Amino acid sequence: MNCKIALIPGDGIGPEIVGEAKKILDKVCSVYGHTFTYEEVLLGGASIDVHGVPLTEEAIETAKGADAVLMGSIGGDAKTSPWYQLEPSKRPEAGLLAIRKALNLFANLRPAYLYDELKGACPLKEEVIGDGFDMIIVRELTGGLYFGERRTVEENGVRKAIDTLTYDEKEIRRIAVKAFEIAGKRRKKVTSVDKANVLDSSRLWRKVVEEVAAQYPEIELEHMLVDNCAMQLVHNPGQFDVILTENMFGDILSDEASMVTGSIGMLSSASLNETKFGLYEPSHGSAPDIAGKGIANPIATILSAAMMLRFSLDLDQEADAVEAAVQQVLKDGYRTVDIMSDGMKQIGTKEMGDRIAQYIERKD
Ligand code: IPM
Ligand code: MG
């Protein structure tokens, strides 16, 4: 199979971890006889340094012309980086929001599960962990507060800032459909998270989610208020299968869920549009404090590449092989510093990539 992949190394540890993910994809190609061609796309600080803006039209066109996009991470240290001297619409994060919108990536999938091998890193007590947990957060990504009208004004000498939170029923319906479809392939439960005791947008959210749920009688639906959900994630994470929520709540809850696993360096994510096209990136940030040190964990990006193989390229066997290779390296006791524990062997970014690549083999 011939595929065109747009690569966005980005900022901070981005280039290092994308380099390892590419190593894995190259190995997949040689083992399974595929040809992937790569085109690099600048986004975030890397684009500001070259073009003065965090995303260009050409970058969008290159991404659109690919079969899928694999990204590292963007952004720098807001206190020290000159990127944050720019006005907000020119900063690295604005580029990320713009590419999500331009590619219509409305569905952000963020799995959060407990690795058996990494149970020791989970900050929860054993009785809370129970049999472990395995959830996926389905976050609406192109609407809500992130994309509503905003401005800062001064009225009678008083500064005032306005952000608006809007959702129409079409935006709610399409993300709800994604969540129910995903739940159908998992444990068949959707927890829709909102703030319907306060917000109109949440009340509409609930109604539309219920209309969608009527089409999926085999799937259990529950509604949960976002503040309660934040508590439940640390109180009883095993209750969740698919969490469906709007943009801002999803941003916050997905960070919480990933922290609860104790291994944020392991968690992948996918942002999809209506077709098979998607942008794949680790759930973690650009970690500028450890950039260039060769110690970042590349596994989240490698697993994001596996998601890309599965969702955008229909290469399930290959995705299985990558996931199995990651599992094997963990079983062998190799760890990057973020997931290191007693008795394990600590290795750096490159060696982790090399070891995972070594284990990629055909199963048939
Ligand atoms: C994320 C990030 C982004 C977001 C930032 C970098 C704009 O936190 O992908 O969760 O808030 O969506
Ligand atoms: Mg976030």
Mind sketching the topology for me?
Layout (H helix, E strand, L loop, with lengths): L1 E9 L3 H19 L2 E6 L4 H7 L5 H8 L3 E6 L18 H11 L4 E7 L12 H4 L4 E7 L9 E6 L2 E6 L5 H16 L4 E6 L5 H14 L6 E6 H10 L6 E4 L1 H15 L6 E5 L5 E5 L16 H13 L4 H16 L2 E2 L9 E2 L2 H10 L6
Parallel strand pairs: 1-2, 1-3, 3-12, 5-10, 8-9, 8-10, 13-14
Antiparallel strand pairs: 4-5, 4-11, 6-7, 11-12
The structure holds 3-isopropylmalic acid and magnesium ion.
The site of magnesium ion has 2 residues, from helix 9.
Pfam family, one: Iso_dh
Function: Catalyzes the oxidation of 3-carboxy-2-hydroxy-4-methylpentanoate (3-isopropylmalate) to 3-carboxy-4-methyl-2-oxopentanoate. The product decarboxylates to 4-methyl-2 oxopentanoate.
GO molecular function: 3-isopropylmalate dehydrogenase activity; magnesium ion binding; NAD binding
Q: What class do helices, strands and sheet pairing give? A: alpha/beta
Average pLDDT score = 96
Order of strands, widest sheet = 2-1-3-12-11-4-5-10-8-9
N to C succession of SSEs = EHEHHEHEHEEEHEHEHEHEEHHEEH
**Spatial gap, N to C terminus:** 17 Å
Can you list the ligands bound to this structure?
3-isopropylmalic acid, magnesium ion
Work out the oligomeric state of the chains in this entry: single chain
Q: What shape does the CA trace take?
A: globular
- Beta-strand residue fraction: 15-25%
Unreliably modeled segments: none
**What's the count of strands?**
14
Relative helix content? 25-40%
Major beta-sheet overview: 10 strands, mixed
Give the count of helical stretches.
Answer: 12
Radius of gyration: 20 Å
